[in-house]
């Protein structure tokens, strides 16, 4: 099965009698071509959920499948390969490499694993232009605004793969946090477009209600429990 499946996933941060269940029997299935939003108050478990979905953090209980791989049975090496090949992370802090220019941020994985072809460069350039970074290809992170850094990180997540292009699963943590309204819509609609045209499974944690209209489903995290909210189309009225 492609996409992401979690079954009865629980995460305890501390063992013993006063342990906290940051996630409490969470089950969810995100199919290829599906764009899911997770909303909920601070401390409800959203970051924990995303970290487990991205195989950055181990669950205490439950099963997780990423694009058909049962991640609890994999070695650390296999896990890191899955992360690299299957998952595009868009995190709050953009984690750009300080000494690489914008274009090279996108090509670094490809460079490390072989040769960068002209079409790789063209694809990366086109994506950056779509995100309004056409004039920043040679800029270093320190020369970028917060929003430009975020957009660079998003572009990288969309193509972060040794074969360039196409991790199957996109995990986004507040991708619009540092963007103005216009850019926020551009970025999330770009993610939505990728999800549909390339059949990716995507999860976006967000506080931004305006972005829910791009999502197929909205879940709410409450005290570690993940609940399906109404369809986003009925939550948000188009203006
Ligand atoms: P979010 O609520 O946006 O998911 P995170 O869980 O990613 O935030 O937290 C990022 C950092 O910011 C954490 O150190 C968290 O403790 C802090 N933080 C997030 N929201 C708040 C808040 N409302 N008040 C205080 N600290 C917060
Ligand atoms: P959110 O992203 O919704 O803000 P988190 O997943 O960050 O929520 O946190 C969920 C719960 O787990 C909170 O009660 C938080 O204090 C706790 N928690 C998060 N990270 C840790 C940690 N590393 N150690 C102990 N408790 C943690």
UniProtKB/TrEMBL annotation:
What are the UniProt keywords, alphabetically?
ATP-binding, Nucleotide-binding, Transport
Q: Spell out where the chain crosses the membrane.
A: none
Q: Does the keyword Transport apply?
A: yes
- What CDD domains does UniProt report for this protein, alphabetically? ABC_MJ0796_LolCDE_FtsE
Q: Which residues form the ABC transporter domain?
A: 4-239
Q: InterPro entries in the record, alphabetically?
A: AAA+_ATPase (IPR003593), ABC_transporter-like_ATP-bd (IPR003439), MacB-like_ATP-bd (IPR017911), P-loop_NTPase (IPR027417)
- Tell me the GO molecular function terms: ATP binding; ATP hydrolysis activity; transmembrane transporter activity
Q: Name one GO cellular component term.
A: membrane protein complex
Q: State a single Pfam family of this protein.
A: ABC_tran
Q: Which PANTHER family match?
A: CELL DIVISION ATP-BINDING PROTEIN FTSE, LIPOPROTEIN-RELEASING SYSTEM ATP-BINDING PROTEIN LOLD
Give the similarity note. Answer: Belongs to the ABC transporter superfamily.
Q: What is this protein called?
A: Hemin ABC transporter ATP-binding protein
Species, as recorded? Paenibacillus antarcticus
């Amino acid at each position: 099965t492609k996409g992401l499946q979690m079954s009865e996933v629980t995460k305890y941060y501390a063992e013993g009698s006063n342990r906290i269940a940051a996630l409490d029997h969470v089950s969810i299935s995100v199919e290829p071509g599906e764009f899911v939003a997770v909303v909920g108050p601070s401390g409800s478990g959203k970051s924990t959920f995303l970290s487990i979905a991205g195989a950055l953090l181990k669950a205490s209980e439950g099963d997780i499948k990423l694009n058909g791989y049962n991640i609890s049975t994999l070695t650390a090496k296999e896990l890191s390969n899955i992360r690299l090949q299957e998952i595009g992370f868009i995190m709050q802090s953009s984690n750009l490499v300080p000494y690489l220019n914008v274009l090279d941020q996108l090509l670094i994985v490809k460079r490390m694993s072989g040769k960068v072809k002209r079409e790789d460069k063209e694809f990366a350039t086109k994506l950056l232009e779509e995100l309004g970074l056409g004039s920043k290809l040679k800029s270093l992170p320190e020369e970028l605004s917060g929003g430009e850094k975020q957009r660079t990180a998003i572009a990288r997540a969309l193509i972060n793969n040794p074969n360039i292009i196409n991790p199957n699963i996109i995990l986004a943590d507040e991708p619009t946090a540092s963007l103005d309204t216009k850019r926020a819509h551009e970025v999330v609609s770009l993610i939505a477009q990728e999800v549909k045209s390339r059949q990716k499974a995507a999860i976006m944690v967000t506080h931004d209600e305006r972005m829910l209209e791009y999502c197929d489903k909205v879940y709410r995290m409450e005290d570690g429990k993940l609940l399906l909210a109404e369809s986003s189309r009925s939550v948000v009225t188009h203006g």
